[in-house]
Specification:
Elements lengths: L9 H12 L2 H16 L8 H11 L3 H18 L6 H10 L4 H30 L4 E9 L10 E9 L4 E7 H22 L2
Antiparallel strand pairs: 1-2, 2-3
């Protein structure tokens, strides 16, 4: 149970156990209410009367209900500080102890919450890049030197520039291949986000 984005404590584990026992049919509304109140930065998530009704609905005592509420608040505050692939988030939540149904509700709610942020980041990035970005490349091959006869060393030079600055990167074959693999991985992640 090791996740880099959340500290697994005894209180968290206890809260997860409580949440897993809550009725699935009522949990989604419960979760939505907490998330909405967090967005509004409301200090009181539920009134005393609402908490009593929730105790009856979920058939739990007040202390157990408060543990569930505090666990969800802590979890969401942590979740909103990171950007995940939904599949990875789902795996992490299951790994730390959530059951499949609760995990699906949490991932669904998180996806709805984070979508505007991702859209905003994408629009800012496209506005910054605009059409002023230029990309060019060249390939040089060092065929031999005084130290090594008949040695071929291919080097790629990538030039990325805009109106303000110009950056040139020199890459060997292995560097270029590693960069290609990373870009392909990023492209796959972006494609998966689009499919949501």
């Amino acid at each position: 149970m090791n996740c880099s984005w959340i500290k697994i404590s005894q209180n968290l584990q206890k809260g997860i156990l409580v949440i897993n026992q809550l009725d699935d049919t009522k949990f989604e509304q419960f979760l939505k209410r907490i998330v909405i109140k967090l967005q509004l930065q409301d200090t009181e998530i539920f009134t005393a009367d609402e908490r009593k009704k929730l105790q009856v609905i979920f058939k739990i005592d007040e202390e157990t209900l408060l543990i569930a509420i505090k666990t969800i608040i802590y979890l969401y505050k942590r979740l909103l500080k990171f950007i995940f692939m939904p599949v990875d988030l789902q795996k992490d939540l299951i790994q730390i102890g959530f059951n499949t149904e609760k995990t699906e509700f949490i991932v669904k709610m998180w996806s709805l919450e984070i979508k505007p942020t991702l859209s905003e980041l994408a629009s800012k990035a496209s506005n910054k890049c605009g059409e002023s970005q230029k990309f060019s490349w060249k390939l040089n091959t060092e065929l031999s030197s005084s130290l090594q006869k008949k040695c071929k060393i291919p080097k790629a030079y990538l030039l990325i520039s805009n109106e303000k600055e110009e950056n040139e990167i020199e890459l060997t074959h292995s560097d270029l291949y590693a960069m290609f693999i990373q870009l392909e991985s990023v492209q796959n992640d972006l494609d998966n986000l689009i499919l949501l």
